[in-house]
Amino acid sequence: MMDKVALITGSSRGLAVAFAHELALGGFSLVLNYRHHQERTDHLAETLKQKYGVEVMALQADMQHPDQLNSMMEDIESRFSRLDVLIHSAGPYIFERKRLIDYTDEEWRQMVDGNLSSAFFLFRKAIPLMRKHHFGRIITIGFDRVGDAPGWIYRSAYAAAKVGLASLTKTVAIEEREYGITANMITPGDIRGALKEALIAEVEGTSSPRPVVGGDLARVIRFLVEESSGFVSGNVIAVTDGTDVIGKSDVGKEVPKSGV
């Protein structure tokens, strides 16, 4: 994997931090995208450089603004002249539980543009760079059972966007396989707080069973980006420890009242 370049969106915190460590360990040059937290992202970049000896650059772009995405991709092409891996980890999420009719127009657009439309704009720029070297790995992040298009109560906008992203990911896998490009979606389990950034080595032996951490998803991603994994494409891969994430998400919680 030496000389290969990976872009990770939403790299300032969360699961993307674990992804960055795993790919840096594999020798990838990294582009860390962030929206607001430049200081945090710069610190991560410096940590990866010193720990793994890889080239890392941080680039700002808001996933909801196509012009910023285009500018970021142009900077990557100018710096590296290639892009081999795209991990689209960024995606807004509304923590407030609310019914469909209570979403505002702006909230709906935020969910769809940030989680689905952003992938369209990224793919459109990344795929030509991957085609040049007849190699590419595209990985998106979904939620439990997203491939079955389940209903997710009080998360309608986010769920609808991610289901669309699952379909888009599978479509790209079919359209681009002749160019050596794969596309897969990873769905995380119930990972919260600091565990999102934790690596497997940091939690081994802490409890039985140990919690699912970002490092578990990162390990799957490390496999998917290998050159020998070219026939693993068009899949939605769950890393949930068998937990019914959707089913437990609203257990014991009060049903939100509608504002209408």
Explain what you see.
Helix 1 packs parallel to helix 2 (38-52), helix 1 packs across helix 7 (214-224) and helix 3 (66-80) packs parallel to helix 4 (105-132). This protein has a single domain (5-248), classed as Rossmann fold. The chain has helices spanning 15-25, 38-52, 66-80, 105-132, 156-176, 200-203, 214-224, 245-248; strands at 5-8, 29-34, 56-60, 85-88, 136-141, 181-188, 236-239. Helix 5 links the parallel strand 5 (136-141) and strand 6 (181-188). The chain has 260 residues and is an alpha/beta fold. Strands 3-2-1-4-5-6-7 form a 7-stranded parallel β-sheet, sandwiched between helices. The chain is globular. The mean pLDDT is 92.
- Unreliable stretches (pLDDT < 50, length at least 5) are none
Report the average pLDDT across residues.
92
Our count of domains comes out at 1
- The CATH topology comes to Rossmann fold
Q: Give the oligomer, counting copies of the same chain as homo and different chains as hetero.
A: single chain
CATH level 4 superfamily: NAD(P)-binding Rossmann-like Domain
Q: Strand share of the residues?
A: 5-15%
List the strand order in the largest sheet: 3-2-1-4-5-6-7
Order of helices and strands: EHEHEHEHEHEHHEH
C-alpha Rg (nearest Å): 18 Å
Describe the largest sheet.
Answer: 7 strands, parallel
**Count of alpha/pi helices:** 8
**CATH domain class:** Alpha Beta
Q: Considering DSSP H and I runs of 4 or more, what fraction of the residues is helical?
A: 40-55%
Q: Tell me the overall shape.
A: globular
What separation lies between the terminal Cα atoms?
54 Å
> Strand tally, please?
7
